[in-house]
Amino acid sequence: MSVNDLFKQDLKVINMGLKSFHTDLKSQGVPAIHVNWKPKAGGKKKMLDLLSKINKSN
Amino acid sequence: MLLQTTIKRNAYYDSVTLMLISRDLQKLDGVDEVLVGMGTDLNLDLARDLNLATSDFDTLTSNDLFIAARFDDTQISMQAIEDSFNELLNKSSQSDDYEDHQPPTLRSALQQMPGANLVVVSVPGQYAAAEVEDALDSGLHVMLFSDNVPVEDELRLKQKAVEKGLLMMGPDCGTAIINGVPLCFGNAVRRGKIGVVGASGTGTQEVTVQVHKLGEGLSQVIGTGGRDLKEQIGGLMMIQGFEALIADPETEVIILISKPPAPSVAQKIYQIAKTSPKPVVIDFIGGDRDDIEAVGAIPCVSLEDAAQKAVAVIRKQPAVDFTGFTLPSDQIDRIVEEALAKLKDDQNELRALFTGGTLADEAMKLLGDRYEIYSNIPLSPEMAIENLQDGRGHICLDLGEDQFTRGRPHPMIDPQTRTDYFKSHVDERTGVILVDVVLGFGSYTDPAGAVADSVHEIRQRLSTHGKDVVVIASVCGTDLDNQDLYKSVATLEAEGVIVMPSNAQAVRLTDLLLQGMKGA
Asked: A13: domain range?
């Protein structure tokens, strides 16, 4: 969907990170969903690289 | 004193939530130092610097939460600190909508909300690029709030976004308003015919607020992140946003805001401006106006001026430079006279304490080279704040810069950093204090109240030396913001603060006072 197509739609937001941004969107009545985000693989770089390789090969 | 750590494995909370809780726990009786955080390298280093590290730190991962505290065990126990933590955490979660199931990944979120069209990403910088890549691959537009994203990742992600015709606003993009919805640090403004593409967060906020105050509205406000117009990125998102606004039937005038771009990037922007069928107002803060005029675009002298000129174009009025004041000159003269009368002869130093980076930058550039101003964003290297001798001289600080925010929330979110600097940097030599008060989503619930409290404390402190001080503020906010512009102005004025209608006018008034001070 191009930028100009986005301008014609109602905004529907996925929020990932600071919870307060999601709370602000909900308070405005904007459809929004908050991802219960955690660093993948406990944030360990070696594991992340490995996961990324597995994802790419799939 | 006892030093103890409590660890909660696999309990992830965002950094702002935890920093605000750390601040509140610090106030408990008997607590000498406390830090709550996820076990990231950054937080572990911070804990070591605060002498809070214990032997079990080696076992922490980024998914583990730790509470590290040094406390007087005759006054408080680790259990009591942990209980307070749980209570504060519950309080901060009360506003959450627990009816919503929170999916663990972007893909599961997309299944739960088919038709989602934009993702706001504010996870720690080192994880952000992977999430943004996923979002772009799923055909979603992105606002990337996170900072500390490598420039190579930014380039790759923006190239992908351009290829797919998507927005990738950021990294370090603080504000945007898409389809009337303010995102992250956006202000509540009416919709209208003026479109903005901005590479400067609070600069964009100031322009949108001024457009609203003048009675017009915004069609779309697109952020790019501060590095977009550097050589390496080549203005990819400003160009993408600019072209989208040219094609947008709701947009009649376009404003572009940035610090001066790399010359090659400026040329690309000017080429589009030259052929734009819509009027283009450009504020490349401190940039060259001749180049802008040469392509038929409208240059500006300030952020406020950019808003005024766009509004003038909409109203088919001449777009002339606004370099003065909204108030008549005799009133300004009277304000200056009364303010100077408050000061003793040896009060001749400026303390400008900003929470908004672009507002601080604009202040430095408007005051120009007429004064020697020490700063963490100096106009020349010899005026770096580190070169200040014995604390004597004019000072202007951008308190949102990294050096002030290590382990602390940004001063727009939590006023504590500025409150501390009011205490440590305002003394009996200070004549004028200049501040910004930024309202809007994301910002602190009552920034004007926090400034007013500090001003009250300063006045009491200076009165013991038989002195007073002049405080000048501007409020970057609207009547529609939750904090309310008018209430904020009234709070400041009740404490004797002179509130000007824009950052540029607050700086100009400061300039007049500095000119009138003895030895400034």
From this structure: 3-57
